[in-house]
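Chain A, query sequence.
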Amino acid sequence: MAERVLAANAAGDRVRLVEGDAREVEIEEPIDVIVNELIGDFGTDENIYECVAGFARRHLNPAGRILPERLRTCLVPVEYGAEYRGVWREDFYGLDLRPAIDFPCRAEAVMHGLRQRPKELAAPLVVEDVIFGPAMAEQRHRIDLSLEVTARGRLQGFVGYFGASLAEGIRLGNYPCYETCHRANWNWPVSPPVEVVPGQRITATLNARLNMIAPGWTMEWSLD
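Chain A, predicted structure.
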C-alpha cells in the first residue's frame, strides 16, 4: 500500500521502503530524523521505548533528532463525577446504582476517555519521563509510587495519561481528551470507593509488563 501511495504521488524514486522489526532492522547509513507513532494511551504502553531505543542506539546520527522528543506519563487519584464512575452513586436521576458497582474489580485498567477533568485528590505523579535518544536508560517495569492526598473526597480510581513533546512548542496529550482525540485514558478503578482526607498517603506499585499494553499493567495500592 505504501508503494502504491508513493507511486501515485511521484515520490517512488525518492523514498526507499524497508520492511522489518525496528528492534532488529539494519540501515546502511546514519539516520537524521526518527519519526514514530507508537505513543500509547498510557505513554509507553505500545512498546515505543523498546523499538525506538534500540533503533536510535544503532542508527541515529549524533546530531539527529527523534519525534517525539519526550514522553511523560502521569497518574492521579480521582473522584470521577457523573461522566464516568461517578454515575454509580445514590441518586443518579432518581436511581440508586451503587449495588451495581459494589464488588471487587480486577486489578487491570479500564479504558475510558475523560472529556472532563475529574476531581483530583492528589497532585498528579510522574510515572515515566522518557527523553528519547541513543543513550536511554533501561526501562523500569516495576514502578513504586507515593502520593499525598490533598483534597477530601471519594477515591474512585486512578487515571493514567500522557503528555508528549513533539518539537519546540508543539505538544500532544490526552487529559482531558479533546473532541478529536482518538487516544483514551487508562483508569484503574477502586471499588467500592474509599473516603480520603488530606494528609493521608497512597502508596502503589505499577507493574508495567513488557510487551503488553496497559490493560495488562496491574496496580497494587494501599492507603495510610
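The radius of gyration is 21 Å. Residues 48-59 form the longest helix (12 residues).
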